């Protein structure tokens, strides 16, 4: 019997980036739930529990740093790993992202090998 698919919540406001990540994840057998902003992500998380959260940092309503801090304050959501996928690649951005509550950090444009290596850390 096949193993159940892992569920990935992808929080990304850019359509093209969402489609790229969806294609990558679905090609590996993951189930993808998409949220275009923090509100949609929070709505899903009221009842759903993904195995991993991928999150853009630069979003229009609530930035990823604030959302990561908010999610890690919730004891039910805290154990879910969060990987930031961001174009913020200046000195100190990685540390700021990890200090906000993200467990991992991937720079855009996405290097597919780095992407899957980072996912493997949290999903096996």
Task: Describe the structure in your own words.
The protein is α/β, with parallel strands linked by helices and 124 residues long. It has helices at residues 15-27, 38-45, 64-72, 93-99, 112-123, and strands at residues 7-11, 31-35, 52-56, 82-86, 104-107. The model has no long low-confidence stretch (mean pLDDT 92).
Question: Which secondary structure elements does this structure contain, and how are they paired or packed?
Answer:
Layout: E1 7-11, H1 15-27, E2 31-35, H2 38-45, E3 52-56, H3 64-72, E4 82-86, H4 93-99, E5 104-107, H5 112-123
**Class from helix and strand fractions:** alpha/beta
One letter per element, helices H and strands E, the order comes to EHEHEHEHEH
- Mean of residue pLDDT? 92
What portion of the residues fall into strands of 2 or more residues?
15-25%
What's the helical proportion of residues?
A: 25-40%
Task: Note the total helix count.
Answer: 5
Largest sheet: 5 strands, parallel
Which assembly state applies to the chains in this document?
A: single chain
Number of strands: 5
Kindly provide the radius of gyration, computed on alpha-carbon positions and rounded to a whole number of angstroms. Answer: 13 Å
Task: State the end-to-end distance.
Answer: 19 Å
Which residues sit in consecutive blocks of at least 5 with pLDDT less than 50? none
Shape: globular
Tell me the strand order in the biggest sheet.
Answer: 2-1-3-4-5
């Amino acid at each position: 019997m096949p193993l159940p698919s892992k569920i990935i919540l992808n929080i990304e406001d850019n359509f093209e980036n969402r489609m790229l990540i969806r294609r990558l994840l679905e090609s590996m057998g993951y189930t993808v739930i998409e949220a275009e902003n923090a509100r949609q992500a929070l709505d899903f998380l009221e009842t759903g529990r993904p195995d991993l959260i991928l999150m853009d940092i630069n979003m229009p309503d609530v930035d990823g740093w604030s959302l990561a801090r908010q999610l890690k304050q919730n004891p039910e959501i805290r154990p879910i790993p969060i990987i930031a996928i961001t174009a913020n690649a200046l000195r100190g951005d990685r540390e700021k992202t990890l200090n906000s509550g993200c467990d991992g950090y991937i720079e855009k444009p996405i290097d597919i090998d780095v992407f899957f290596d980072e996912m493997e850390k949290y999903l096996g």
